[in-house]
Amino acid sequence: MTRRGLLLALEIAVPLILLAMYAAWAGAKESFYFPPLDGIGERFVELWLSDRFVQDALPSLRRLAIGYVLLVVLGVSIGLVLGAFRLVQQAVQPFAEFLRALPAVALIPFGMLVFGVGDTMKIFIIVIGAIWPVLLNTIDGVRGVDPEMLEMARAYNVGRWGRIREIVVPAALPRVVTGMRTSLSIAIILMVVSEMVASRNGLGYFVLESQRRFAISDMWAGIVLLGIIGYVANFLFVRAERSVLRWHRESKGPAR
Question: Are 223 and 154 in contact (CB under 8 A)?
């Protein structure tokens, strides 16, 4: 069996083994907090193959998508400026470090005061909390550009924006993409937390409300859907990353 085939077999076998272990344990334990697997599956189908998906899942996905796009655009744009202009970066670094040290969830009361309890507050929390991996990786990527390439571009009278577009951005892109992948996971977490604290719909709201109603199977069905969303988002991101950075892997040559 090839290495790729072995990895694929493990990716399939490990979740199945874990599910079988949970089913056996839950069946023997008969715990109120850990319902049988078939009960969770039944509620999952009833909830998420119905209007409940439109009511709770789609609003969460919309907030996640808008917040993620905004944080990527802002993180890359600000990171390019701070990475290219060291004086500007040094001027704003103390304030940026202060914001980065703040837990994003601590800003939820502030967000509620300024934006209310609607989507704007939740998107604000996603952006302010998940922007940092993109921003910092962009700065590092810009600073890691080979100075000789920049000097050569200057020798050929390539303008500043031309150097950024043709040299800086491609060289920094691998690190930027790494930051984007990390930010995606953080954004999903903040989406759920913001919906748990102040919301009338969304998956975070649904999970917390199910727990309060002691609808444990519903709660687990919501948690499973969140796990599926995270897995699918990461899978799609990795596929896109391989396509976008194919030139980078080819330039490094075959792995030894």
Answer: no
> Are 1 and 78 within one domain?
no
- Summarize pLDDT for 62-105 with one digit per residue, the tens: 999 999 999 999 999 999 889 888 888 889 988 888 988 999 99
pTM of the prediction?
0.87
CA distances from 2 to 12, 124, 194, 248, 250 (A): 16, 46, 44, 25, 22
Report residue 98 as tokens.
């202060």
- Counting other chains too, the contacts that 57-62 makes at CB distance below 8 Å and 24 or more residues apart are 57/203, 57/225, 57/229, 59/119, 59/201, 59/202, 60/191, 60/192, 60/195, 60/202, 60/203, 60/204, 60/229, 61/229, 62/119
Residues 122, 13: one domain?
Answer: no
Statement: residue 30 has pLDDT above 80? no
Q: Residue 73 and residue 70: Cα distance in Å, rounded?
A: 5
Do 47 and 157 belong together in one domain? yes
Other Cβ atoms closer than 10 A to 52:
15
Residue type at 230? G
The C-alpha atoms of residue 111 and residue 180 are separated, in whole angstroms, by 24
Residues 6 or more apart whose CB falls under 8 angstroms from that of 244 comprise 173, 177
State which residues form the domain around 16.
1-30
118 and 200 assigned to the same domain = yes
Pair (134, 44) in one structural domain: yes
> Count of CB atoms within 10 A of residue 57's CB?
20
